[in-house]
Give the backbone structure.
Amino acid sequence: MSVGSTPDKFQAANLDGAQTREDNYLLASSGVGSWLFTLDHKRIGVMYLVGILVSFFLGGIFALILRAELFTGTKLFLTEDQYNQMFTLHGAVMTFLFIIPSIPAALGNFVLPVMLGQKDVAFPRMNLGSFYLWVVGAIFFLCAIIFGGLDTGWTFYTPYSVTTSTRVILALLGVFVLGFSSIFTGLNFIVTINTMRPHGMTWFKMPLFLWSIYATSIIQLLATPVLGITGLLLIAERALHIGIFDPEMGGDPVLFQHFFWFYSHPAVYIMILPAMGIISELIAVFSRKHIFGYRFIAYSSIAIALLGFLVWGHHMFVSGQSQLAAVVFSGLTFSVSIPSAIKVFNWLATMYKGSISLATPMCYALAFIFLFTIGGLTGLFLGALATDIQLHDTYFVVAHFHYVMMGGTLVAFVGGLYYWWPKMFGVMYNENAGRLFCLIVFLGFNLTFFPQFIMGARGMPRRYARYVEEFQIYHQLSTLGAFLLGIGMVGAIGVLLYSLYRGKKAPANPWGANTLEWMCSSPPPLANFDNPPPVGDPYDYSNLRYDEREGGYVTVPGPAKKTSSH
Amino acid sequence: MSDHAQPNDDSHDHGIHAHVMSMSTLFGTFAALLVLTGLTVAIYEIDFGAIDIWVAMGIATVKATLVAVYFMHLRYEKPFITLSFLFSLAFVALFISVSLMDAREYEPQVEALHNAQMQEAAE
Amino acid sequence: MTVAESTHEHDAHGHHSPEAHVAHHFESPQQQFDSGKLGIWMFLITEVLFFSGMFCAYAIYRSLHPEIFIDAAKELNAMLGALNTVVLIVSSLTMAWAVRAAQLSQKKLLIVLLWITLALAGVFLGVKTVEYTTKFQHELYPGIYNHFAQEQYPTVADKYVSKENQASGGAEHATEAPAHGEEHSEEHGSTPATGEHEEHAHAEAGGHAHAEAGGHGHGGAQGVRNIHIFFGIYYMMTGIHAIHIIGGMGAIGWLIYRANKGEFSSEYFGPVDYVGLYWHLVDLIWIYLFPLLYLIH
Ligand code: HEM
Ligand SMILES: [Cu+2]
């Protein structure tokens, strides 16, 4: 089981059927207990993946119900109150249960230690604890849904959150616990990356995915605790009326918004940074070219993480914030677009003259670049003071954040899932089916959300169950798109699940990537590596050749590598 | 970010390298903390006017620094840890100062509203 | 480990049973220790930001409404606050000393020091309980249960608090704590007119029993509006701090249990060090809470 740079060795072992249980983490032990109490980061990652996909499915059902109701401007099947609950639950489930943990906790957990050539993260027990906190948080959310719902919007703004009769406290407890789950993940990753990089992997030889996860973890550590205390203070406000956020008791609701957005704006970078990390990997591998501007991409991750803390007030332009603060925040908001644009340009430059292969992950990466660019550019309209007065709380905002969150993060997540799927489960999915559903997702997504830009700019407010005639056509297009998107998503996940039963056996390195996770067998052995494999430039593909027999790439002794490995 | 990915492999002794605080440092720190607590309480009676709170916070910060540097032996840790800690304090400062700046800016409006409401109720 | 201990009492670089406490994914005890150290510090950073929310609320209300703080802080007992400060400082000393004992493989001393730390934490909580109880006797509860809040916001009180549970009015504690009452009326001879107004407005509009605030001994309630905000902040800050103390006691208890089994020595003392760091941070936060809450004028 010794691991070198020659993945073919494992392959041979696997084909011979000489595999021992230790050679495959999925088979290393069996029984429900072996999963529930596992300390193996790979299994924890898989459990997270299941939980996250279930949440996504739940949030998606809510979304489709919303969209169906909006097919006409009059009541179809939801009362106004039910509609309010539905969009709140959709938003809260999607943000807190799905998108924040999606890439770091599910994919990151699986990939990060293997990318570092290590056996596990620094604190395996805390890792499992983080998963169970996620489960507890999800249970709180479920309780809130069952025992009366929630209708404050995922933002919990006071004073309404103090007076509504729905289950605010249960949901806040859920948010609190989920926050700790997220903190533990981030803490674990920071320590792992700091202290456990293998010999030869300096900071600037780390894969860019790790840089982005590191930047994300910084935000998780610095911002999430503020969400925790905000939740506790709001619980106290609701239970005891302590008068900090509630104007009825002399408190200040604008202060609540400061607290909330001090976390929640950086949180959108918790969502998007890991996605950018995945895209950096995908673009390089599938263009078979060294990533362009490595250092710029790495530094821009950190820059985004830090600048992200300076702009929270752009959510409060029309909520009573002072003019001074509004002007400052508006100006700072534009600064975040610089590092984001740096990334996009570097990806494009990487593709330039590359030999691009349109495997499914790459299709998602291209979709990401397109959608994220639209999402990002429309953000500038919202960051500009004057235009935001018109656009605030309209469907323009809804379209903007769905382009970034769904078009960005979700698409990158699915792309990453397709990319690492062979590594995670040792099987290849059907490439054509994968591409087909990627196309459906892309079309459905644009059909759903592009009309929302138009109606938003024309004044259709968000969070309304009813609307006037003039908006009907946009809403109907959007609803059609939503169902198309739904089909696309179910199909995309279906293709992966199907491969578990019918998929071809995956080679160790199906894509010809040069990061360390492809140097162990697929799926990895229980301990990943006996000793960390030699570290080279993660984006140097010159020594990898496609091997027909393997169905994947193997390392060939080629021209001397540009950078020494060991 | 100067810390190394790997502990030096050449150290084949298995002990852990960590500073052991001397008894005199521990008790010296302790005594200083007690004195400063006494000082905080003693000057409480003196009225410094507007800078009252800054005096109290200043002393508290000296105490906190003593705790961090000696009891938490930050002095002997890798600089990365000290930097991270200071870095986090910068974010605390950012959070508090910007929120405070904004609240002070819009406070007159809140006050005006309050007075108007009182007026109304009185009529 | 016990064998190791007796043979190598003071040898910080023993060469035996090194793998006893090294998890499989670490390469050396040093790497494990460094990871744990970095991990606990990262955790402390989250704690700092967690508390920062309350400090932020404090800063804003104190800056905008200093009168609330000046007035309400009179209700706190600075001596008890000072006592607790000293208690925590002593416990920090014993904790830091315990880390040293662990590093030097002084098992007995380690256990004794941990017990003392634990006991001091208990004393701290005891004093806290006394403080809270006196507050409660004066109906200085958090939020709308606070009698100041009920006097100022009678309609809100009616909405959320049943009649039986509403404050019985200030008249009794004026006699309970006469010194207090006098102090207050002196302090606030020059109360702003708006505050006065407000009380009357309520008295007339609500016709509420508690609105006879005029007969009430606490000068503060008449002059300064929103006194309850101080108590909200006070209870949140000290309450959440106390929860951290309780958490710390759990951790120290766990250390004592492991120390009794002889698990700590010069080769493996990480957990003692980490819990110690946590304990010092809790102390460090109290160092700020004390002057901020108790010493205001
Ligand atoms: C990555 C996945 C998604 C995320 C993270 C997400 C997030 C959110 C958030 C945060 C809100 C705001 C809720 C609020 O106002 O409190 C929202 C609203 C909404 N979302 Fe999504 N969403 C996702 C996917 C979808 C999909 C796939 C659809 C439709 C097919 C959809 C349709 C809607 C609708 C209709 C609203 C309500 C707009 C309103 O009435 O203001 N979302 N979403
Ligand atoms: Cu934002």
Notes: Residues 1-13 of chain B have pLDDT under 50 and may be disordered. The two ends of chain B are 66 Å apart (CA to CA). Residues A 60, 63, 66-67, 87-88, 90-91, 94-95, 99, 153-154, 398, 402, 405-406, 410, 448, 462-463, 482, 485 surround protoporphyrin IX containing FE (ligand 1) (CB under 6 Å).
